[in-house]
């Protein structure tokens, strides 16, 4: 495929813009799938694991949020409402 073929393909796209609609749908759909798979899903998994870690650490290792420490309880509530 040479430079002439590439230029002819671009010219064809400008002459028949209805053919570009499908290509745009593929690009936009692919972008949504990529963002979900490589950004949203890992972010969700990491934040969920950190919320579980926060609850386990405070409830078990801090002996019940350090016997009702307001800062630890408020931090856990804040993390839960943000998630």
What can you tell me about this protein's structure?
The chain is 89% helix and 0% strand. The chain has one domain (3-82). Helix 2 packs antiparallel against helix 4 (70-82). The chain has 4 helices and no strands. The protein is rod-shaped and about 75 Å long. The chain has 83 residues and is mainly alpha-helical. It has helices at residues 3-15, 20-61, 63-68, 70-82. The model has no long low-confidence stretch (mean pLDDT 81).
What is the count of DSSP helices, taking H or I runs of 4+ residues? 4
| Range of helix content | over 70%
Number of strands: 0
Shape: rod-shaped
- How does the major sheet shape up? none
Strand content: under 5%
Detail the topology: elements first, then pairings.
Elements: H1 3-15, H2 20-61, H3 63-68, H4 70-82
Helix pairs in contact: 2-4
């Amino acid at each position: 495929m040479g430079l002439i073929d590439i230029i002819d393909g671009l010219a064809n796209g400008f002459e028949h813009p209805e053919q570009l609609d499908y290509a745009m749908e593929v690009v936009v759909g692919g972008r949504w799938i990529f963002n979900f798979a490589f950004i949203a899903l890992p972010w969700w998994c990491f934040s969920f694991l950190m919320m579980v870690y926060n609850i386990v650490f405070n409830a078990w290792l801090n002996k019940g949020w350090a016997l009702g420490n307001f800062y630890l309880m408020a931090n856990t509530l804040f993390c839960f409402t943000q998630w």
